[in-house]
Design brief:
The strands form 3 sheets. Strands 1-2-11-8-9-10 form a 6-stranded mixed beta sheet, sandwiched between helices. Strands 6-5-4-7 form a 4-stranded parallel beta sheet, with helices on both faces. The protein is globular. It has 10 helices and 12 strands. The chain folds into 2 domains: 213 residues, Rossmann fold, CATH 3.40.50; 103 residues, Rossmann fold (3-Layer(aba) Sandwich). It is α/β, with parallel strands linked by helices and 329 residues long. Strand 9, helix 8 and strand 10 form a beta-alpha-beta unit. It binds pyridoxal-5'-phosphate. Pyridoxal-5'-phosphate binds next to helix 2, helix 3, strand 8 and helix 7.
């Protein structure tokens, strides 16, 4: 069945044996125009909110499709990872790893606690993950040796799962989008817009769009001030992912990740990670009219950026795509 083969394996058959994939969600994810949104009627949505057949969805599940097989290849039975209190990444990891018999330990730093975060903490508790509240990044780093020893030297994953292997999830999403463009579902978009928390989503999209031969730019709306997420960091992650693909045997020509392919903006960050903004709140209300449920930490701020981009003459009337990365259940 075509559905069980990721685009990466179809495009580079040599990867099927060297880069195992675990299907955790149904694809392709729908691509629909958000009629009535914006001023030019050219805003589309790639709906990754519905990606993931387990108890949580969204962009982190695409990363886990490549990460979990790597954890299993290392014969590891526990993952140690980090995030903030409301971590979508930690929750998705705990739930999907549990389904494979792998335990999860989370070291969580503080973030402003609101309704949204409280609900997430309940879900985290129910996921069965072992949670250490380390409060700050400095304390997490100081406690790292203890955490590793205490949990039997687990498989470590950085915040958001943004390793080159995790980033493959959005190389795959970009190839999927390119297939949808090729089959006539929409014209080639001028840009895709995503929130940036740890960078894997934006970096994967950038690499995948270039591999697919599209000229579509990536607009990266930074919502996190606790990690280095400048253009060079995101391009560096995309390069690392390109190297991974080549090292596993994929054959392709030179990839141009420069030339204004990536636009990184911190304009919608506000006071910092997890702090809601008035612009984000307003954007979430606009999105709700189109049937989208956005979260205050990531997608509301990215959608605020998208609405401003829509009004800007930079891309004329060409379509722009919002990636809905938030997957509550
Ligand atoms: C983690 C997250 C993002 C950001 O993705 P990164 O790959 O970490 O940059 C965007 N939206 C939501 C809802 C997320 O949970």
């Amino acid at each position: 069945m075509a559905e069980s083969h990721p685009e990466l394996h179809r495009r580079y058959p040599e990867l099927a044996a060297t880069l195992p994939h675990l299907r955790l969600g149904s694809r392709p994810r729908p691509l629909t125009r958000l009629d009535g949104i914006g001023v030019r009627n050219r805003v589309w949505c790639k709906d990754d909110s519905g990606f993931g057949d387990g108890g949580w969805g969204g962009n982190k599940v695409r990363k886990l499709e490549w990460i979990l097989p790597d954890v299993e290849a290392h014969r590891s039975h526990r993952i140690l990872t980090v995030g903030a209190l409301g971590t979508n990444w930690g929750l998705a990891t705990a739930l999907y790893a549990r389904d494979r018999g792998i335990d999860t330990t989370l070291a969580l730093i503080d973030q402003p606690v609101d309704e949204h975060v409280r609900a997430q903490l309940v879900r985290l508790h129910e996921s069965g993950a072992t949670v250490h509240r380390t409060h700050t990044k400095a304390r997490t780093i100081a406690l790292a040796p203890w955490l590793f020893a205490r949990h039997g030297f687990p498989y470590y994953l950085p915040a958001g799962g943004s390793t080159p292997i995790g980033t493959l999830g959005y190389v795959e999403a970009a190839l999927e989008l390119a297939e949808q463009v090729r089959s006539g579902e929409m014209p080639e978009p001028a840009a895709v817009v995503t929130a940036v928390g740890s960078g894997g989503t934006a970096a994967g999209l950038l690499l995948g769009l270039r591999l697919a031969g599209l000229r579509t730019r990536v607009v990266a709306v930074v919502v996190n001030d606790t990690l280095p997420l400048a253009e060079r960091d995101l391009v560096g992650l995309a390069r690392g992912t390109e190297r991974l693909l080549r090292s596993r045997g994929a054959r392709f020509g030179p990839v141009d990740l420069g030339s204004g392919s990536l636009i990184v903006t911190r304009r919608w960050l506000g006071p910092g990670y997890g702090h809601p903004t008035a612009e984000g709140t307003a954007a979430a209300r606009v999105a709700a009219d189109a049937g989208l449920t956005l979260d205050p930490v990531y997608t509301a701020k990215a959608f605020a950026g998208l609405l401003a981009l829509d009004e800007h003459p930079m891309f004329g009337d060409a379509p722009i795509v919002f990636v809905d990365t938030y997957g509550p259940r």
